Amino acid sequence: TMGTAMAVAKQGDFLTEDGRVEDIKPILIVDSTAAIAGGFLGASSITTFVESASGASDGGRTGLTSIVAGIFFLLAAFFSPLINCIPQAATCGALVFVGFLMMSDVVDVNWSDPIEAFPAFMIIAGIPFTYSISNGIGLGFITYVIVATITGNVKKVRPLMWIAALAFLVYFLMTIM
C-alpha cells in the first residue's frame, strides 16, 4: 500500500515538498481494513493498485474517477462470458505498459548507495523472475537487511523491517521444502 500510495501521489502531484504523502495514515487504515474485510469474506484482494496512478496522472483527484470506474466494472460484469473468450495472453501488452509506467520511478533510486540500490534491483529483477510482485518485494526486504548488516549499517534497519524480512525468509524456505 505504501508503494502504491507513493506512486499514485507522485503521478497525481500529491507529494509534499519533502517527498511524503500527505495524510498517509487514513490511507493505510482504509486499505488495511479493506484487505481484512476481503480476506474475511473470501473475496479476492481488496487493496489499492498501482494502476490508480494512471487516473491520478490524468486528473482524477476527487474520488469521482473511482466511482465512475466502479460503475463501468459493474457494467462489465455482464460481459464476463464474452471477455472470458479472450486468451489471457492478450493482456500481455497492458501488463508491459503498466511495467513501463512503474519503471519511471527508478530514476529516483540512489544507485550509488548499495543499501538502497541492491534491494531495489532485487525487487525489479525478482518480480518478473518469480512471476509475483509479493515475492519480488520479499526479496527486496531480505536483501535490504542483509546489505545493511554487511555494510555496518544495521542500525538503519527498523524492527518492522526485521520482522518482514524474517517472515519472507520463512515463507521462501517453506515453499522450497
For the structure shown, list the relevant keywords:
single chain; 177 residues; mainly alpha; 2 domains; 66% helix; 0% strand
Radius of gyration: 18 Å
Annotation field: number of helices: 9
Q: What portion of residues is helical?
A: 55-70%
Number of strands: 0
Order of helices and strands: HHHHHHHHH
The low-pLDDT segments are none
Report, as a whole number of angstroms, the end-to-end distance. Answer: 30 Å
By secondary-structure content and strand pairing, the structural class works out as mainly alpha
Question: How many discrete domains?
Answer: 2
**How much beta, percentage-wise?**
under 5%
**Overall 3D form:** globular
Q: What number is the mean pLDDT?
A: 83
The profile of the biggest β sheet is: none
Structure description:
This protein is an all-alpha fold and 177 residues long. It is globular, with a radius of gyration of 18 Å. It folds into 2 domains: 1-108, no CATH class; 109-177, no CATH class. 12% of the residues are buried. It is built from 9 helices and no strands. Helices cover 66% and strands 0% of the residues. It has helices at residues 2-11, 24-41, 52-57, 64-77, 80-83, 92-102, 114-130, 133-150, 159-176.
